[in-house]
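The material for today's practical consists of a large collection of protein records. A record pairs a protein's sequence with a compact description of its fold. Instead of coordinates, the fold is spelled out as a row of discrete tokens. We will come back to this pairing of sequence and fold again and again. Here is such a record, shown just as it appears in the course material.
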Amino acid sequence: MHTVSKTDYLLYRECPKNTWLKVHKPDVYYTNELSDFEKSIIETGNEVESKARLLFPTGILIEGHDIVAQEKTAKIIQDLLSGSSENIPNKNSSTGLQTIFQPVFVKNGFMAAVDVLQYDPNKQSFSVYEIKASNNVKEKLHLYDLAFQVNLLKMAGLQIDRIGVLHLNPKYIRNGDLDIIKLFVKDDVTESVNELLEKVAIEMQETQKYLSEDAEPSGPCDCIYKGRSGHCTTFSYSNVSVPAYSVHDIARIGLSKTKLIELIDSNIFDIKEVPEYIELSDIQKNQVNVLVSDRVILEKDKIFEELNSLVFPLYFIDYETFPSAIPRFDGFSPYQQIPFQYSLHIVEKAPLENGAEKAEEVTPIHHEFLHTESSDPSLAFLEAMQKDIGKIGSIIVWNKSFECNRNTELAKRFTKFKEFVEDVNARVYDLEDVFKKQYFVHKGFKGKTSIKYILPVIAPELTYKNLNIQNGGSASDTWNRLVTSQIPANQKKQVTEDLLKYCERDSYAMYAIWKHLWEL
């Protein structure tokens, strides 16, 4: 009988076959190593958990999940229930409460480590707290997570009085030293979790039975009815009949479950085979039609109207930011983005005004900013941007709301830049709008409007594959490691150059796309 961990159970709820493969064919499940960005998410969770433990200053930490940790847990629980203090070195005499971090329980083929288990001798019962590196309680994840733990604890004979989630407080703004009490919110979810216990107990048994089977489950996995972003780790292994570019990639099809179910149940996986009777949105129809017809949708008049509204000089700018879960500097809240870098390409005059016949004959001016110290980059970021951006001209970005929101947040922390920021935001133009409005649709875009999909079609020579940093998540994580001394001194120069090259590619990519549109 397979011992089902809490992680196994939660994975099973998402995709049973994927979980079976994790247990029985780890070589398939772990084909791809975790990226640096994925590892940073795990590190963030560990950092948040260590901070949350400070709310319980006399807690005992049990290290590891092995048999030694299980035996230590059993001894401490036995002492608590008997009133002994033999295995409890930090007993809290003032409150009588005793806290254990990461106690490990194994019972009836189920296993879990509990983030926080607190014993109240007056009530002779325990409180269970799950620490989450999020700004709120996620019902479908956090409550089922806790219901699994509570069921297991009850199997082990413990009386559970209170159930809670400790998560970050999105309203907390750091001012001086970190205030741990204000940083976290303790949500009581006892009633909600108790209502789930019976359902989860049944699911736990189903999970155990499923994962204990030696024979590999046949057929596709459950993710075949989900959009591409919802696919499990082993999707391609379990669904060999689904092409790399399939109906799962139709724009927002994951939110149109009825449509996707109808297509899958009709054994239609190739986008080219989508029948006309399937009701699709205009964006979805365009995506399918350009692939089937091998034609490009190009609304030149409308593109001209968009570009003609721009005022020279044009400022193509891209930001890089880091969303620190624990506010690192004054004025920041949990996960508020820290802007640490930008790249700016400037086209001073319209190409024809320069006497040139093509935009390619105009060479943009490049400016850049990168903060490499451990201090708050915000003020230096604003000062550099104010120096580099003139008072006249359109400021071109990709995903307008992101840059404008960062600007507004900066102005709140440094009010003397309020007028500058308001002026900048008023002049911002989102180049992605040309593609979002469907003025330009190409089969190579695959229904997406991200610059990473647009650029390979319009300017394939500007690939990211020849860069050491190839995406924003990696750039963000790299900067964090750079300024927190996690990168060896002899590598810092190269890493700094890698960050500059990546951000420069992003802003130049916008210029290249604009140039292509201009020449149309």
Q: What stands out?
A: The chain is about 40% helix and 15% strand. The two ends are 65 Å apart (CA to CA).
